[in-house]
Amino acid sequence: MEIAFTHKDKLRIIISIVVLVVGLLIIGVAFTPPFNPPQCEGNLTTDNSNCIIGANIGAGLVWLLGMAIAIVGSIIVAASLVFALANAKTRKPGMALLITAIVVGATVWACWYIFIGAPSIQKSRYQAEIRTRRANFVQYKGIPNIHSVTRKSDALTVKPATGNTNSVAIDLHNCSPGSAKVSYATGTTHFVFSGITKDKNLEGFNDSECILYIGKETVDQNWDGSLPVKCTSWPISNTLSENQLEFPVTNAGIQFSDILGNCQDLRTGVAPDL
């Protein structure tokens, strides 16, 4: 089969493909480190240019811009091919019509999968996983005691794994019920994770939060095992990097900062001093 496009048709197709590629590139780079730096951890503030605090609205706007350009580009590609094939010189019009249908169908399917299908599948899998984790939630009445918790949680990681601990990381997405602890020169900080539950004040994708309790044992005091500090985290995100909270550890203990704003001492009803 011989199909001859005019020079204008070829130019129109090339330009439309370039527009589509530009849109896809913008989508691809919207959430790379230069455009979407990690959340500030521990005691870092907005003075640190390598991290941010709060939602990155700019990255979302860049992503939406890329989507808009890609959608327009894909429509122009399909329209250009249809127009070019309709006006092309061919000895087999039926074959040209079939090719047109295949190209248009493939373009529409690809756009649907990239912009709707794949994100929907990811969201469904994430929400199914969160529902499973919610089913394992442990509700404590009053102040829990470390001696009554036998299960170990893998939501907390000390760094480095061996030797003196320099920092501790809490994985909100992996907020499995159970206990964990971090030891240092002057004592030990104990954690009890209730697990993941739905935040009644939130709706939509990120409507879950991790509930944990904290108690501090010092070497010069008798500790009864109670964990009076209850913390509710901010919404759990479907982005893994946004669920990692890391705090430095010194000889005096864990240097909590941002998370304390979401914590309350159940004995006094005020923010704790950890």
Instruction: Give the ordered list of helices and strands.
Output: EHHEHEEEEEEEEE
- Based on CA inertia axes, which overall geometry fits? elongated
Distance from first to last alpha carbon: 77 Å
Helix content: 25-40%
Please tally the helical runs, counting DSSP H or I stretches of 4 or more residues: 3
Structural class: alpha+beta
Low-confidence stretches: 41-48
Strand residue content: 15-25%
Largest sheet, strands/sense/barrel: 5 strands, antiparallel
Task: Calculate Rg over CA atoms.
Answer: 27 Å
Nearest-integer average pLDDT: 76
Strand order of the largest sheet: 5-6-7-8-11
How many DSSP-defined strands?
A: 11
Nutshell version of this structure?
It contains three helices and eleven strands; from the N terminus they run βααβαβββββββββ. The strands form three sheets. The chain has a five-stranded antiparallel beta sheet. It has a four-stranded antiparallel beta sheet with strand order 3-4-9-10, with no helix packed on it. The radius of gyration is 27 Å and the shape is elongated.
What does this structure look like?
The chain is α+β, with helices and mostly antiparallel strands and 274 residues long. The chain has helices at 7-29, 57-87, 93-135; strands spanning 3-4, 89-90, 156-159, 167-171, 178-184, 187-198, 208-218, 229-232, 244-250, 253-254, 263-265. The chain has a five-stranded antiparallel sheet with strand order 5-6-7-8-11. A four-stranded antiparallel sheet has the order 3-4-9-10, with no helix packed on it. A hairpin with a 2-residue loop joins strand 9 (244-250) and strand 10. The longest helix has 43 residues, at 93-135. The protein is elongated, with a radius of gyration of 27 Å. It starts with a strand and ends in a 9-residue tail after the last strand.
